[in-house]
UniProtKB/TrEMBL annotation:
<dbReference type="GO" id="GO:0005829">
    <property type="term" value="C:cytosol"/>
</dbReference>
<dbReference type="InterPro" id="IPR001789">
    <property type="entry name" value="Sig_transdc_resp-reg_receiver"/>
</dbReference>
<dbReference type="InterPro" id="IPR011006">
    <property type="entry name" value="CheY-like_superfamily"/>
</dbReference>
<dbReference type="GO" id="GO:0009898">
    <property type="term" value="C:cytoplasmic side of plasma membrane"/>
</dbReference>
<dbReference type="GO" id="GO:0051782">
    <property type="term" value="P:negative regulation of cell division"/>
</dbReference>
<feature type="domain" description="Response regulatory">
    <location>
        <begin position="24"/>
        <end position="140"/>
    </location>
</feature>
<dbReference type="InterPro" id="IPR025669">
    <property type="entry name" value="AAA_dom"/>
</dbReference>
<protein>
    <submittedName>
        <fullName>Type II/IV secretion system ATPase TadZ/CpaE, associated with Flp pilus assembly</fullName>
    </submittedName>
</protein>
<dbReference type="Pfam" id="PF13614">
    <property type="entry name" value="AAA_31"/>
</dbReference>
<dbReference type="Pfam" id="PF00072">
    <property type="entry name" value="Response_reg"/>
</dbReference>
<keyword id="KW-0597">Phosphoprotein</keyword>
<feature type="modified residue" description="4-aspartylphosphate">
    <location>
        <position position="77"/>
    </location>
</feature>
<dbReference type="InterPro" id="IPR050625">
    <property type="entry name" value="ParA/MinD_ATPase"/>
</dbReference>
<dbReference type="GO" id="GO:0000160">
    <property type="term" value="P:phosphorelay signal transduction system"/>
</dbReference>
<dbReference type="InterPro" id="IPR027417">
    <property type="entry name" value="P-loop_NTPase"/>
</dbReference>
<dbReference type="GO" id="GO:0005524">
    <property type="term" value="F:ATP binding"/>
</dbReference>
<dbReference type="GO" id="GO:0016887">
    <property type="term" value="F:ATP hydrolysis activity"/>
</dbReference>
Length: 410
């Protein structure tokens, strides 16, 4: 970036890769020629939000103790009294807010003052846009690493009808049955989502209703918006039974803030992304500890899975170790063997879910959960291995608990 103004030439419809977690920030400047290009730049990030303040509004905000928020980053225009601004930020907000100074003059004296007042970094105008990108990446990574947040696991169909929804629902249910952990299931499909039917439970609120008021949601409001199944599993779905002209839409920033609230209050978040990659739900991919891609033993599904894995790795920067492949309705009689799937998708392991059409069909038709009514079936045992993987249970721990509960029942 050769100057601040060059940011304004960017297409506002363009987008950057999601950050590791949501970043909430302020921009402090009296100059609209400074603020406007930054707002255009920030709009390219799906999970950032920066609020602009002129200098008087900035002071007023810091003095508003009742409604004071704690941003992750504050970008200060070097044309204002930045030394005083930085000292106020440190005194009132503490050390968790990163301060970035943008100035046309960064001589030794400025750098010394910046270091003394706790400013994290100084960018000299003109500077490369990649420098600002990196500051946001670093801030998000530090924030994510410093928080004890719930783990996120997403389930994606390689192509339509692979079975991601029933797998995600069953795995979430199995995690909920563990008394030592808490879990939430999020169904993002407003058109075909069937989570409430699988759970035989009508939702209290829909996802778009929660996202519409995400800035006002606290821990108590969040629990009120989630629907509790009799097993203890809490969930929120997107599909309405009402007749609507258009499907509800939401922004990635709102979804990311909601996801952050859920992660702050629950140990495990299971997200059904059976429709595949969509802009609004990309923050879930960025936050995910586990990305499960569901395929079946057919060439079209494996071909689409290969494309999806390339998108995740090369376009979204997802680590290979976070990607797992589930072969649903697996049968040994298929011409396509697991080894061939591994080779085609360049993965070391596969999760093989055995074909049990009768149990799954009965479960979906009657609204009876697999783990409750078909717990002796091999399909449930394999799905339990998936939930154990999410909870980082070892093979010995899982089987030890199984033997313990068998002893109690005897």
């Amino acid at each position: 970036m050769n100057s601040i103004s060059t940011l304004s030439i960017h297409d506002k419809t363009a987008s950057k890769q999601p950050l590791a977690t949501f970043i909430d920030g302020w921009i402090v400047s009296d100059d609209v020629a400074f603020i406007n290009p930054f707002e255009a730049y920030i709009s390219q990030w799906p999970n950032t939000r920066f609020k602009p303040f002129d200098e008087p509004a900035f002071h007023s905000q810091l003095n508003n103790k009742e409604n004071l928020t704690f941003p992750d980053m504050i970008i200060i225009d070097g044309k204002i009294d930045w030394v005083n601004a930085a000292e106020l930020i440190k005194d009132i907000l503490g050390n968790n807010t990163q301060i970035i100074l943008l100035t046309e003059n960064s001589d030794t004296q400025v750098l010394r003052h910046a270091l003394k007042t706790g400013i994290k970094d100084v960018l000299t105008i003109p500077f490369d846009e990649e420098e600002l990108d990196q500051l946001l990446y670093d801030c998000a990574e530090e924030k994510r690493n410093s928080r004890n947040q719930g783990q996120v696991s997403v389930f994606l169909n390689a192509k339509g009808g692979m079975g991601a929804t029933i797998i995600a629902t069953t795995v979430a249910h199995l995690i909920a049955l563990e008394q030592s952990t808490s879990s939430v299931l999020i169904d993002t499909d407003a058109q075909f989502g069937c989570t409430s039917n699988l759970l035989s439970t009508q939702p209290n609120y829909l996802l778009n209703e929660a996202l519409a008021q995400v800035d006002e949601i606290d821990e108590f409001a969040l629990n009120g918006m989630l629907t509790k199944h009799e097993s203890g599993l809490k969930f929120i779905t997107s599909r309405s039974t009402d007749l609507v002209d258009t499907l509800p839409e939401f922004k990635a920033t709102a979804f990311n803030r909601f996801l952050l609230q859920v992660r702050n209050n629950f140990d495990h978040v299971i997200i059904d992304l059976s429709r595949g990659l969509e802009n609004a739900t990309l923050p879930a991919i960025a936050e995910a500890n586990n990305i499960f891609i569901v395929v079946q033993q057919c060439i079209p599904a494996i071909r689409e899975a290969a494309i999806l894995i390339k998108q995740l790795k090369h376009l979204l920067g997802i680590n290979q170790q976070n990607i797992k492949v589930i072969v649903n309705r697996y049968t040994k009689n298929s011409e396509i063997k697991p080894e061939e799937i591994q080779k085609s998708l360049h993965v070391d392991e596969l999760i093989l879910i055995p074909n049990d059409y009768q149990s799954v069909n009965s479960s979906t038709n009657l609204g009876e959960l697999l783990a409750t009514h078909y717990d002796k079936k091999p399909i449930v045992s394999k799905l339990k291995e998936t939930s154990d993987l999410i909870m980082n249970k070892t093979h010995e721990e899982a089987h030890g608990l199984k033997r313990f509960f068998s002893f109690l029942r005897s």
